[in-house]
Amino acid sequence: xxxxxxxxxxxxxxxxxxxxxxxxxxxxxxxxxxxxxxxxxxxxxxxxxxxxxxxxxxxxxxxxxxxxxxxxxxxxxxxxxxxxxxxxxxxxxxxxxxxxxxxxxxxxxxxxxxxxxxxxxxxxxxxxxxxxxxxxxxxxxxxxxxxxxxxxxxxxxxxxxxxxxxxxxxxxxxxxxxxxxxxxxxxxxxxxxxxxxxxxxxxxxxxxxxxxxxxxxxxxxxxxxxxxxxxxxxxxxxxxxxxxxxxxxxxxxxxxxxxxxxxxxxxxxxxxxxxxxxxxxxxxxxxxxxxxxxxxxxxxxxxxxx
Length: 306
Prior knowledge:
Elements: H1 2-41, E1 49-50, E2 54-58, E3 61-74, H2 78-92, E4 94-96, H3 108-120, E5 122-125, E6 128-131, E7 134-142, E8 145-158, E9 167-176, H4 191-208, H5 217-230, E10 235-240, E11 246-252, E12 260-263, H6 269-272, E13 284-285, E14 297-300
Parallel strand pairs: 13-14
Antiparallel strand pairs: 1-3, 2-3, 3-9, 4-7, 5-6, 6-8, 7-8, 8-9, 10-11, 11-12, 12-14
Helix pairs in contact: 2-3, 4-5
């Protein structure tokens, strides 16, 4: 009798588990679909045109939510476009730079600087120049379930690039349900972390020592002395311009990573669209290193010596 009771209870427990699992999954889908519909109903950032809502994923990949696009062509400064788009993204519920902590908002200045740095670095692909993308994350929860939000923005234009070039801004806005790693490339202790440490050391010193020559080799050496001593496997060399001022650094990371050149030109509030906060800096990537490269811009290889 006892054995028969157990045999009946086990399938019943399994059925209950399957029922609640399917119900939870259905609720998560409903929440994600509701979230994307609410996002799509909001007025877009100035000048943007929204696409239709579509499924996120599909054969051979699993469907994980819904998405829509936003598109604009503009010749405005990157700083102006970033400020307007970030305001829109915040309304959508995305304000985190971390896909690991989508519910934790990042400071406004951090968002602005990261957006400008990301969209400034252009890479050539055939006859189109496509920038690195700028991403923001968010998290929502209601009675139907919870959703992870992701807004991804990039900027592109035809070559050659001139001062009169118009750029196309393409954004993808998505709401996901279930367990998903939005950015599987996110890692700790990468060369990016090393660069940010250097930028924060130099930047924080400069905002508290406004009367000091920001490009004096002795000053740069003093700022980086402890970093160089604590990271002996990382080579950080000063690269001076024709007048002897250090405007860039050549860095060879640890772990066999490729060396790169990084600009340490003084932070430009006009370019970034915000006063220098002394922190919250970001890495800008590019295929070639410009003489006018702004603070944090970098490119793989040796630094130009002109």
